[in-house]
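Here is one chain, start to finish.
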Amino acid sequence: MLRHQNAIDDLFFRDIRGTARYSFLQAQRLPVSGHPVVHWTEDDAPRSARWRSENGMPPPARLVVADDRMTADAAYRLACEGTALLWRGDFQNARQLLQALARRVDRKPKKARKPAASPVEAFHLHRQAQSQRARVLAMLLLPLDGDYGIPLRRAPDVRQACVEAYGPGDGPSVVSLRELLGLIGAHEWRKKGVEIPALGGRIHPHYGVFSPVRGEYVSLVAEAPLPSKTLAFDIGTGTGVLAAVLARRGIARIVATDQDARALACARENIARLGLNGQVEVMQADLFPEGRAPLVVCNPPWVPARPSSSIEHAVYDPDSRMLRGFLDGLAAHLEPGGEGWLILSDLAEHLGLRPRAELIAAIDAAGLRIAGRIDIRPHHPRASDDTDPLHAARAAELTSLWRLAVR
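Its structure:
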């Protein structure tokens, strides 16, 4: 049966070559707009469209026009070789093909891999596998019209989801199906929101802004004793959830900062939706606003590693840059007797990526002292998933609110 299927695949490839619908072309950039562009040949004519990739993946250098005749084995072989598939068949069949590709990527190797020698090695092997998986699955591409319509049979209406992520349409484009499904999921999260018990309401995350689904850090801010109720700074506000919690706790004025345009728009929308505009000001800033406050709160990314997409900036912080920036600038922005609340998971410590001694040394070098610490154990599903390659580290993880004061 496999030999018969391979013969069919070979016939398919010869067929698309014979009709000049198969082309290997180097992707180029459009010099006028500066947007990445992908080029291909289809029906004996050269084609091009804007390339969209939120994680910065370059346009594919090799591209095959494919449809419902493409088998999963053939698609997987091409994707592993780095050849992208521009889909012209039924949309729902494309979704099924993506699932079939994922099953092949996730298939256990026949020969068991050698166990990682250390948590650090396990982490890097896990990230490497994730990256390879993402590259293969990103090879299945869909066309989008100028207004983000999908010109395929049984395709859903994704125009609003695309506008929320990309802004107004500006001509035909090509995007990976995997990214498009992420846009659809983000749109649904944005519509229904995330229930936050400490707010008595919902937070509606935008595309590219980390959703507050891990509620333990929100609980810490909701329950820690307040040093003052006059003013607070929320550094790196994201969705605005911590600023909103502080407002609900009775702090008269909160200045929430971020430097990401999507986060700023998201936070402003959430603050307005919750009726907190009178207490919370959302402003663009690299970490701190001007002035001092009796309370400065920050929940920086907790793993010192390079993010591979925009959403991962909320988790991965190369060289702990945001963490160190917060610590180094905190003393200059605290009022006398004030506190800085650093909310941080110790997952990096259990992975061997940042020892506790390094964090303590950074606090000391910034002229700060530890006034106290409150710990909470996460309850997310991965903490109890013993099939996760990083299970040992996740099972031991604690999230802490470090109460810092000027030494």
